[in-house]
Amino acid sequence: MSLSCSATELAVLLGSNATAAADYICGQLGTVNNKFIDVAFAVDNTYLLFSAYLVFSMQLGFAMLCAGSVRAKNTMNIMLTNVLDAAAGGLFYYLFGFAFAFGSPSNGFIGKHNFGLKDFPSASADYSNFLYQWAFAIAAAGITSGSIAERTQFVAYLIYSSFLTGFVYPVVSHWFWSADGWASPFRTDGDLLFGTGAIDFAGSGVVHMVGGIAGLWGALIEGPRLGRFDNSGGRAIALRGHSASLVVLGTFLLWFGWYGFNPGSFNKILVSYESGTVNGQWSAVGRTAVTTTLAGCTAALTTLFGKRLLSGHWNVTDVCNGLLGGFAAITGGCSVVEPWAAIICGFVAACVLLGCNKLAEKLRYDDPLEAAQLHGGCGAWGLIFTALFAEEKYLNQIYGSKPGRPHGLFMGGGGKLLGAQLIQILVITGWVSATMGTLFFILKKMNLLRISAEDEMAGMDMTRHGGFAYMYFDDDESHKAIQLRRVEPRSPSPSGATTIPV
């Protein structure tokens, strides 16, 4: 809140030379007030920048997760695609994406200003906002790369990644996050969808569903990897990734980055809800980190025991995917629900993931990282979850006070928010299917999508990237495996002592 000072009011209290003294005091107070404003801007921008750094670090998590989930012969290929998601995404989001997403003033469908960051920064956005939103855009592209791993031509990666980050994703983020978007809860004209707008705080739909559905169409149009399903009976054959260690490392890096993804989506931290109390945005940021943690932890444990019952194994890769499914689901409503509700979110998210994986197997759908099931399925559940459990007081704090605001159905808020969320699911599915599905179909018709069967069997590292990601010592005698022989137990010696073989 700005400090105010009136020289006229002070002059009455100061006696002789009152006007000059009052002008001096007000000038000093004005200087102090400007310093407070400067500090507030600095704190909020620093908070957003560090959140952007955390979200960007998720690219390393994606790279490690993808590398560990594919076979060793394709490691270099999948890591290179993750690097290019960031590089190509950065250029195309700078040229077009940010303008399509947040260029204002605009219409409800797409932004029209700030191409190449022209006339930027503005009163409503600084460079930290661009960096943060770019990190989100490349996260969506990274999701898609996992679905089409181990069989996709390199040029197809470049084309789809540029198109997704430069056009498809920005349009969706404009709809739900821009002040001009037709379904945004931030609309300034008060014309909100169902009186509330679609609530997707950090992107269960905008990021995760977009990336997951794009990957779904890519994998469907390409078809499964060679050897994934038995040709005679259609039985699924596991093509396991080569490194559980990299999967776990990538999962923890993503977990760490999610604390920028969800809490960072407030954009500001120095906002007071009740002046002079602990009730401020800093507390909401902490609550959001807690709900994120609880949803992921619950989903991980649910997946652990669920897979134990289904397969009889304690599988670390499945647990990691379950954890990430919980994170993807809570992302949409992490700031507007109570911590206890996040546990419900994580539990159901794990069930959704297990169910989607079973369905994918029956339909002979092959997704090496379960990206479509995890991000698409759990992301959709996250939007529905928000419609059921969103608290009215949290919605008013974050999206502006509105008497009688529709909120969670189970919280007594009626069904309007649920209607808005279902519309969000439908329009995201339709938009991404129409754009990315068409793109992948065109690439297939132009023979630019899938590699040859020979290259796929040999592995893309050797055929497309000049060598394997790891060193091998098959011809080195010192690295050959030691042959072990079975040692049979011997009879006790006459003296009663047991002879131990040397």
From TrEMBL:
Gene3D superfamilies: Ammonium transporter AmtB like domains. Signal peptide: none annotated. Residues 47-470 form the Ammonium transporter AmtB-like domain. InterPro entries: Ammonium/urea_transptr, Ammonium_transpt, Ammonium_transpt_CS, NH4_transpt_AmtB-like_dom. It is found in: Cell membrane; Membrane. One of its GO terms (cellular component) is plasma membrane. GO terms for molecular function: ammonium channel activity. It comes from the Eukaryota. It holds the Pfam family Ammonium_transp. PANTHER family: AMMONIUM TRANSPORTER (PTHR11730), AMMONIUM TRANSPORTER 1 MEMBER 1 (PTHR11730:SF121). This is Ammonium transporter. It comes from Arabis alpina.
